[in-house]
UniProtKB/TrEMBL annotation:
Stretches assigned to coiled coil: 17-44
Stated name of the protein: F-box domain-containing protein
SUPFAM superfamilies in UniProt: RNI-like
Entry keyword set: Coiled coil
Length: 497
């Protein structure tokens, strides 16, 4: 008889109810034993199956190293989750390796569900005691979740790379020493930060927004080398970070006040990107003296305008010297082109090893552009974008190498930009002839690369010139020149725009 109906039939026998509790307990015990055997057999099957694969011969240490390399290459916590889901053995290895759970922990600090917060918290615990990379983000609007802010603040000594798309330091305040730090049951609450020095011994990178703070906070981070700071209102950030040890800095500042006082202390920088408000020509700053940034190799400057008033960024170039600078990009706003003048030219003169110069949307006449060419002898790549009316016949003539004429001068005149091999001109709307362009290219291009050994100018590698169709129309001579040079092997593009 089927067991269910057999049990029901026994219910009619005398004394059944007195024995039912014991019988039920025995049945549950037997079921538990069977389930345990099933689990054991499944683990045995998994182990035997894994043993039949070549991968089982890989030592545990090497397998863990592979896991870490995968996670590091992806920089996303989902990589660790996928690895741990392959099989029971891999999951065991993953759970025993906290470093696997330290990369790419991201969460929406407003819209995350309770389940997501629970998983995020569990992953933070799995990564202990190693430094962990955290990214907090949210869309505009909504209330920040206190539980997320709390759990992140508690592990601040373990922040490795920390990113927040909002002002984290204004959203929470530290607890008393007795209640702060990982393992505390207390949680930060809303309100401004107290004036405090916050120890972040593992922090190497920080990306945060900064609003107005009533009391400054000082981050003590001995390993910090990279920072991305957005300042939306004037705030005294002089002691916010250990500026002197930074090697890479991105600074967005919507107010001209204070950012030079910060940069003056950043003497170890090798990379700097500035999106800052330019100065009104009627309110120029007064600096005490010139400051040298001795290690800076990459500089990207994007001055911002607040209105249609006349603005300038010349005081910046007058104030700083960057003798090791190799790559400079100056990108003005599209709506408000800004002049570059003598101080920018002098800055270039003080940057003797500059190799790449990119200029976007700058107002400068042919004379200023000529001065620029005469002061960048080491530049190999010159890129001009939408800097109108500065490229003329004189530009190409200045770059045309005339070996006989220059050799006849006493002393022999060195050619301008002798190392130039890449030239990009887009949206410059210059007035020049195809003969001027061809003459410059021909003086710096030859089919046989072996001739370069005897030439004082570098052989061109890439030329991209966009001429104005409104001035020339669709000139077939430009097209013919492009075809001829391409056939000879030069990477060249001559188009109209």
């Amino acid at each position: 008889m089927e067991p269910f109906y057999a049990a029901r039939a026994e219910a009619d026998s005398p004394g059944f109810y007195s024995e039912a509790t014991s019988l039920l307990a025995d049945a549950h015990s037997e079921l538990a034993r069977l389930e345990a055997r099933v689990i054991a057999q499944r683990r045995r099957i998994a182990g035997l199956s894994y043993a039949l694969t070549p991968l089982h011969k890989v030592p545990v240490e090497l397998l863990v190293d592979i896991f870490l390399r995968v996670v590091d290459s992806v920089d996303d916590i989902r990589a660790a989750i996928v690895l741990s889901a392959v099989c029971a053995y891999w999951r065991e290895m993953a759970l025993q390796t906290p470093r696997i759970w330290t990369k790419g922990l991201k969460i929406d600090a407003v819209a995350a569900s309770d389940e997501t917060v629970a998983v995020f918290t569990k992953l933070l615990h799995r990564s202990a005691p190693h430094p962990v990379d955290i990214e907090l983000h949210h869309k505009d609007g909504g209330t920040l979740r206190k539980d997320i802010l709390g759990v992140v603040a508690k592990i601040s000594p373990r922040w490795g790379r920390f990113t927040a798309s909002f002002d984290f330091f204004r959203s929470v305040r530290p607890l008393h020493d007795s209640g702060s730090g990982e393992g505390s049951d207390s949680a930060p609450i809303d309100g401004g930060w107290e004036s405090v020095s916050l120890a972040l011994p593992s922090l190497t990178y920080i990306c945060v927004q900064c609003e107005t703070l009533s009391n400054p906070i000082v981050l003590s981070a001995p390993r910090l080398t990279e920072a991305d700071i957005a300042v939306h209102k004037y705030i005294n950030l002089r002691d916010f970070l250990p500026w002197s040890q930074l090697t890479s800095l991105v600074l967005l500042n919507e107010n001209t006040r204070g950012f030079c006082a910060i940069l003056d202390r950043c003497t170890a920088l090798t990379s700097l990107r500035l999106d800052v408000v330019a100065w009104r020509t009627t309110r120029l700053p007064q600096f005490a003296g010139r400051v040298t940034l001795p290690c800076l190799r990459l500089l990207e400057v994007s001055p911002v305008h607040r209105s249609s008033d006349e603005y300038t960024f010349e005081p910046f170039f007058e104030h700083y010297t960057c003798p090791a600078l190799e790559d400079l990009q100056l990108a003005m706003e599209i709506e408000y082109n800004t002049n570059v003048e003598a101080d920018f030219v002098a800055f270039l003169r003080r940057s003797p090893v500059l190799q790449r110069l990119r200029i976007h949307h700058c107002d400068m006449g042919p004379d200023i552009l000529g001065d620029i060419l005469r002061n960048i002898p080491a530049v190999t790549t010159l890129e001009l974008y939408y800097s109108r009316d500065c490229v003329t016949e004189a530009f190409f003539e200045a770059l045309t190498y005339h070996p006989q004429e220059q050799a006849a001068t006493t002393p022999a005149q060195a050619p301008l930009m002798p190392r130039l091999h890449t030239l990009i001109l887009e949206g410059t709307c210059g007035q020049y002839t195809v003969e001027a362009l061809q003459g410059m290219i021909r003086s710096r291009w030859w089919v046989d690369d072996s001739e370069a050994r005897d030439s004082p100018v570098a052989r061109l590698k890439h030329v991209n010139v966009e001429y104005s169709v409104s001035l020339f129309g669709e000139d077939e001579h430009f097209e013919e020149l492009e075809k001829k040079l391409r056939k000879e092997g030069l990477d060249v593009s001559i188009s109209y725009g």
